[in-house]
Amino acid sequence: MEAAVFIVVLVIALALFFDFTNGFHDTANAMATPIATGALKPKVAVLLAAVLNLVGAFLSTEVSKTISHGMIREDGIEAATFLPIIFAGLIGAITWNMLTWLLGLPSSSSHALFGGLIGATLVGASVTAIDFGVVMSKVVLPALIAPFTAGVIAFLVTKLAYAVTRRYDGKPDGRDGFRWGQIFTSSLVALAHGTNDAQKTMGVITLALITAGFQDREHSDPQFWVIFACAFTIALGTYMGGWRIIRTLGKGLTDVKPAQGFSAESSTASTILASSFFGFALSTTQVASGSVIGSGLGRRGSTVRWRTVGRIAVGWLLTLPAAGAVGALSALIVVWLGPVWGVSVGAVLAVAIILAIFWRSRRNAVHAGNAMSEVADSGHAVKVKRNPPPTRRQRAILREQARLKAEQEAREKAARKAKAKADAKKRAADAKKAADDARASSKANAAKSKAAKPKPSKGENK
After folding, report:
1. What is the pLDDT of residue 28?
2. How far, in Å, CA of 208 to CA of 87, rounded?
3. What is the pLDDT of residue 104?
4. Between the chain's N and C termini, which has fewer beta carbons within 10 Å?
5. What is the mean pLDDT of residues 154-169?
6. Model-level pTM?
7. What average pLDDT does range 285-300 have in this prediction?
8. How much is the pLDDT for 233?
9. Between 312 and 186, whose confidence is greater?
10. Burial classification of residue 326, based on how many CB atoms lie within 10 Å of its CB (0-12 exposed, 13-18 middle, 19 or more buried)
């Protein structure tokens, strides 16, 4: 019993640390675009995100049930075996989370957790211990559908926003009213992050408590102290992670306009809140990335940088198996050394890895290349032309200007033609008059010459 309590305490501590890393790893999901557009100051944005993550964690527990009573069949596994498996899975998730945070690679904290638990369960228990039906319906399919859905919604909302406000086309900062809307929508994203991501840690802790016999299997809802601990930890992680955003967003997230940021945040919040209601364990990072890409495509003159999109997709695909591999390796250590010694050695190794990563992060200069979130990478996946094509209103204005110019040119041409015709007629009249004058003068001169010629006398004629 003492060994079980020891392992449960370690699992809870490790789960809360994962919750902390989830918070600072995903802070930018909610607040990257409002900071980039100037809707919120960095410190205010990070503090607001922390508070709303805390509140959101109390709003729903459906996602936690997916983890605690669905994905893994704990009925056929002994507590002495299953608790170390959970511990090993958490080590896999945390290690991958910290490594991707250090390298600035695209990653999902949620999929790192799922991968770590699945990998550890496969090694420590068996394939039958995993309910692949739940994994597919609650994890894999939502992960594939949600980013695409969020992107489509963001694309349509961006198109609508620009259509409604097209009278501001060509005016500097003509859509600044969307900055106020961004404060609301980014707050919704932070709230949604708490309703979805904090619950995953609640589910892991509840699963450990049920396995150890400290909670009834028939009541899989997380206890209040579990909810509070997870809510406080993810909020603390969100606030502590804000320094990376404060130091890097000044170097440029992407060319995000207020209307575009509003659309992306609206899409992200609606998708995550809906998934939390139905118990889908989504990746907030992937949904936010899909929204940023979709809103970027909604702008005029935008094109996709497929190489960047491919890099993000590869990161998504690698997260689950990579975290699963680390979780499986941790489970091998636990199985080889036994539950108590295996967990103890695993805890020491986990602390050593975490300290090494933190030490390494202090050596690296923080800049946009190694510290921006996946959402920033998603913004760079869309290339917007410096001189986008004109809008419908601008095209109508250009057509009207072209018509007026053509009419003016036609009038000027007709006037020039009429003037040329009048000049030609005048020249012809002048030429005719000159010819008539010349003929008249010639006749007059001939008459004068004839009159001046002397006539012969009669005597001379005889």
Report:
1. 62
2. 9
3. 63
4. C
5. 75
6. 0.69
7. 78
8. 92
9. 186
10. buried
Residue 157: pLDDT above 80?
yes
Listing DSSP states for 83-136 in one string gives HHHHHHHHHHHHHHHHHHHHHT----HHHHHHHHHHHHHHHHS-GGGB-HHHII
Per-residue pLDDT reduced to its tens digit, 406-439: 888 888 988 888 888 888 888 888 888 888 878 8
Tell me, what's the pLDDT at 276? 74
